Amino acid sequence: MASLPFQEARQEWSRRFALAAEPCPDEARGPRALLLMREFLWPLEPLKRRFSTLEVAPARTPKRVMMLPGFGAHPVRMRWMARQLERAGHTAKSWGMGINLGATADRFAKAEQRLLDLYDRRGEQLVLVGWSLGGVMARELAKRHPEKVEKVVTMGSPFSGSPRANNGWRAYQAIAGHRVDEPEIETVLTEKPPVETVAFWSPRDGVVHPRSACGRVGERDRAIALRCSHMGFVLSNEAVSALLSELERS
């Protein structure tokens, strides 16, 4: 009997390995290999910021912002961006969990409860800012609770086209334990939330295909092109400046 937990764990990991090894049925492709390799230069982003100017003006109407990290990322990866928002006078809140290991039903339920708790504290709508998978989850939260969300801003989020049009879907299936096109929550990813929805995308994204992050007319209200890497969405002056401008438009 003592070996039963080990056997169950081995079977589970075998199942996840099989998910990661699946062929791509729709022949979707992520960004080119060169762009993906450039993503590993993200530690240089703080140095690059020194060669550009970031002006943070006081916000005319401060917002409360809930920030959702990307797949495999801890909220600390968005901390620099959060600090810039707070410099402007906004209130930045994390999603209340650690590393984002996939949009499982349990993790989504916790993110949903976090949104409800933040709203109940002041009764004020929040702006949801989601990076990569975090943006996909932000869109779903806004669909369920539009009265509590003022706006959704996604950054390099794969909400359009094939869910495999990125360079991370195999890792996602292995870690989350389900197929990218078989989410644990009932949804239509391309459906636009009933609130203002803005998509940041970049032709230099090495993880998510630009078309998937940009979306089509009707899947978001506006799309804004940046020239940063996928990691740069939360680390570059350009992305922060674009986000601050969006918050001023609300």
Automatic annotation (TrEMBL):
Residue ranges occupied by any AB hydrolase-1 domain in the UniProt entry: 124-172
Regions crossing the membrane: none
Hydrolase recorded as keyword: yes
A GO MF label: hydrolase activity
Keyword Hydrolase tagged: yes
Keywords: Hydrolase
InterPro entries recorded: AB_hydrolase_1, AB_hydrolase_fold
Superkingdom, natural source: Bacteria
Protein name according to UniProt: Alpha/beta hydrolase
